[in-house]
């Protein structure tokens, strides 16, 4: 089912909290932004940052009217060898849908290469666990032949020396491996015996000739106090960069109130302080190791460009699209399935991209609730899409910082 714009709220959007808020709109953001730690509170010394953030946001605003596909997710499968407690895709041993076969994947990629400049497209292969697909190496080689660059997002348990070498031969140069803490915290949500192979996978990627081996950490209360040690550990294992993300209430966690997965305002500030300090120190010392906070909603003028390098807000449907495992076309695999815009098995991918992404490129419906009167709307455009849809009561990063 494709999403369509109704009066103001697209299909698939969980409206209850939003409508409740819209009935009693919050006071304007600047009026509330008086507390010292309020991420929205600005002074004169913030002016240069405001100018830089405005410039950064302008690119995103331009893409609303002139979308430009440069980042493609391929959700290769929804099958997985693990059962992580936080899994946003609710992955199990079997897929709940009929997944694309090899020839279907290759044919969709061919149409994309015909209709777009493939050399500008970076494909992130995610899942489920991509290494469960036997044709992974063949598909990666095809992407390379078409001129696309590719990377794998993996739990690492199946990325041995042999697999890394085959991916490298197929032309892949970047691997992202999920490392959710030190051993105990990682295995508490990913399962026993998963930590060592995941750390080893970072080294296997480098040995095989990958240029970048990224560690990705979902930060939660159980690993927040070990960030410095996690950095040391992933670096010793071979990571060239480290991305810190927070957990969304989707998939297995949809509607969950499990506080063990969720950071409160003081913890969010601690996480952002850590990333900010590390980026500053690494930059000063000329260290090429990259630490950054993940993409998502606007973090405030002071934070936005200090915890990530720019272009960090949500680009779903603007330069980012996804081929889901059954051929449906969405903007980002983290959006609800109801936000898929059609199937690449039935229509040409480029047609779906150019004609059916209206909900992602319309901002009018996002001007509701707290966003309606927020002074930062032109910089933020109403938050990160997956966060807004997954947790409509909790998506604003200014509020999440307290
Ligand atoms: C869905 S997984 C697929 C790739 C691979 N199986 C893995 O675990 O890395 C992609 C990334 O999303 C992260 N992730 C899973 N559930 C999440 C959630 N509820 N919120 C935010 N990130 C999540 C994982 O930790 C992983 O880094
Ligand atoms: S987070 Fe990744 S490894 Fe864990 S169950 Fe989901 S898809 Fe599998
Ligand atoms: S999500 Fe963005 S636009 Fe909405 S209230 Fe927060 S900062 Fe303002």
Throw out a few tags for this protein.
9 strands, single chain, globular, 402 residues, alpha/beta, binds iron/sulfur cluster, 9-stranded mixed beta sheet, binds S-adenosylmethionine
Layout of SSEs?
Layout: H1 16-23, H2 29-32, H3 47-65, E1 71-75, H4 102-115, E2 122-126, H5 136-146, E3 149-154, H6 161-169, E4 174-178, H7 183-190, H8 195-207, E5 212-219, H9 221-224, H10 227-237, E6 241-246, H11 265-284, E7 290-293, H12 301-304, E8 320-323, E9 329-330, H13 349-355, H14 358-361, H15 377-380, H16 385-390, H17 397-400
Parallel strand pairs: 1-2, 1-8, 2-3, 3-4, 4-5, 5-6, 6-7
Antiparallel strand pairs: 8-9
Helix pairs in contact: 4-5, 6-8
Provide a short characterization of the protein structure:
It contains 17 helices and nine strands. It is α/β, with parallel strands linked by helices and 402 residues long.
